[in-house]
Design a protein that fits this description.
single chain; 230 residues; mainly alpha; Serine Threonine Protein Phosphatase 5, Tetratricopeptide repeat; 12 helices; 0% strand; globular
Amino acid sequence: MPVEEALHRLDEILDRSGGDRMAESSVLYSVGRLEAMRGRFDEARVASARGVKILEDLGHRPQAESARGEDFGYIETLAGDLPAAEQELRRACDTLRALGETGIFSTLVAELALVLCELGRFDEAAPFIEESRTAAAAEDILSQARWRIASARVQADQGRPNEAIDVARQAVAMLEPTDVIDIQADTLVQFARVLMAAGKTAEPARALERALALYRRKGNVVSAERARRC
């Protein structure tokens, strides 16, 4: 659903929630991500912080840490503050690891690995990729795709271009049947970087064009502009 339509629908859901605080926290989680997509980072942070606070007040610690890591990791990545994104994701992963939670952990630890790749710290990313691979359920398409694309970035940095491209293609293909078009687009951008590292010329441009079309369809103007500049 495009950003503007989604925000309108969320307002309607909140109006009908009847004071249900769990529903409110879910709405605020989504609002945070959507506001970040259109570059309203202060509004995104406020919404996400409110959602996390509700979960903490209700005693839902794993959900609160998951929401904090997912939302703030995403918001700060889009805002261009990768050290802040790393900090939020590390905190969430440390907490979920200690609690023995694996479902959300497998996705967040893959996202942490991708942030480290963006920071050029590929050696540090490798253990987190392995944690995601080990924890991810076979049917968890998101985690399976995200650890693969992170692994492809590391392999490309290690001078293993053919392996990197094969794994990156797997990640892209896994997400194609889904409707998470924003993640599809991000994975295509990562795929383009793997291809560029391998010295490819025409194929990275095609991957970026596909990503740009998906970002525009979603209304993610921040990521669309970033993809356009790649």
